[in-house]
């Protein structure tokens, strides 16, 4: 799933290519991806992309009226908000087909946005059979309920705010870092990386951390995420996925040696996902039981 570093890098990539350009056409290949009906996607053509940024793990493409704006010309801003979910991605092209993608077809394309010169624009795609990618067309990102209920951005909180968030919950660290209503931006992969780097158990209680552990977790969180953003922003969108994988130390590396201590990276699976950790670095050598409500094995 694209998380803060990937969404931030994609936003920067699209901003550098689309800001100031007119939207010429929007093709919708999957009607189920659109979660709003007013404004309509047909209000976007003729408007100009003013900026592309992110809120949490949401991509926000901001538009303002252009000289050829349609029915939505009176709206000072209309935003296309995209949540890439688990298997969504963005693909830029200078040779986009002018034939609209066929709705309901086997193509992974959900949305196609033509902007700039003919052939320029991007596809929003989703792999696999579980279609969870979502898009909203709104006058303000806060009109999206999921955004309105987000916790503060993980890179925007101070150390004291971070400590207050940890102290206000009885949840485990893994849960706190990935609960978007508590703190936004981090998902399954980077929470694994953060906790491994901080040498903390995924199942440690957030409320029990002492001041030194809070300092360590706060600084580690910022370092892991900002370094990932810097690494990805130097890449083309097409290569970001592979670059992310090469930068991971424990996530998705079950059975491989920990790059820090050499111990075997372990996995805990639950429902339809899993996470990874190093027993030596994070749990004092103890192996976590591989079930949803895990406790440390005696």
UniProtKB/TrEMBL annotation:
Residues 249-283 form the FPG-type domain. The keyword tRNA-binding does not apply. Its cofactor is Zn(2+). Keywords: DNA damage, DNA repair, DNA-binding, Glycosidase, Hydrolase, Lyase, Metal-binding, Multifunctional enzyme, Zinc, Zinc-finger. It catalyses: Hydrolysis of DNA containing ring-opened 7-methylguanine residues, releasing 2,6-diamino-4-hydroxy-5-(N-methyl)formamidopyrimidine; 2'-deoxyribonucleotide-(2'-deoxyribose 5'-phosphate)-2'-deoxyribonucleotide-DNA = a 3'-end 2'-deoxyribonucleotide-(2,3-dehydro-2,3-deoxyribose 5'-phosphate)-DNA + a 5'-end 5'-phospho-2'-deoxyribonucleoside-DNA + H(+). Transmembrane segments: none annotated. Residues 2-105 form the Formamidopyrimidine-DNA glycosylase catalytic domain. It comes from the Bacteria. Gene3D superfamilies: 1.10.8.50, MutM-like, N-terminal. It holds the Pfam family Fapy_DNA_glyco. The keyword Oxidoreductase does not apply. PANTHER family: FORMAMIDOPYRIMIDINE-DNA GLYCOSYLASE. Belongs to the FPG family. This is Fpg/Nei family DNA glycosylase.
């Amino acid at each position: 799933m694209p998380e803060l570093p990937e969404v931030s890098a994609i936003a920067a990539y699209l901003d550098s290519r689309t800001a100031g350009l007119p939207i010429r056409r929007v093709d919708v290949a999957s009607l189920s991806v659109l979660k709003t009906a007013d404004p309509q996607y047909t209000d976007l053509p003729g408007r100009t992309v003013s900026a592309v940024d992110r809120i949490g793990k949401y991509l926000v493409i901001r538009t303002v009226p252009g000289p050829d704006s349609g029915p939505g010309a009176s709206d000072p801003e209309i935003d296309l908000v995209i949540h890439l979910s688990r298997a969504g991605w963005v693909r830029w092209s200078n040779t986009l087909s002018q034939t609209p993608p066929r709705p309901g077809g086997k193509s992974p394309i959900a949305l196609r946005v033509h902007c700039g010169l003919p052939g320029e624009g991007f596809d929003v795609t989703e792999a696999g059979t579980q279609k969870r990618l979502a898009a909203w067309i709104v006058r303000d990102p806060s009109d999206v309920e999921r955004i309105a209920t987000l916790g503060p951005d993980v890179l925007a909180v101070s150390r004291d705010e971070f400590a207050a968030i940890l102290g206000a919950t009885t949840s485990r660290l893994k849960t706190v870092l990935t609960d978007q209503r508590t703190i936004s931006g981090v998902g399954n992969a980077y929470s694994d990386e953060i906790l491994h780097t901080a040498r903390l158990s995924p199942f440690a209680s957030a409320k029990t951390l002492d001041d030194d552990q809070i300092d360590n977790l706060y600084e580690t969180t910022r370092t892991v995420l900002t370094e990932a953003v810097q690494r990805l922003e130097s890449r083309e969108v097409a290569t970001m996925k592979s670059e992310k994988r090469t930068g991971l130390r424990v996530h998705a590396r079950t059975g491989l040696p920990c790059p820090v201590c050499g111990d075997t990276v372990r996995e805990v699976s639950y429902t339809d996902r899993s996470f990874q950790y190093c027993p030596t670095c994070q749990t004092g050598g103890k192996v976590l039981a591989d079930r949803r409500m895990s406790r440390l094995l005696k």
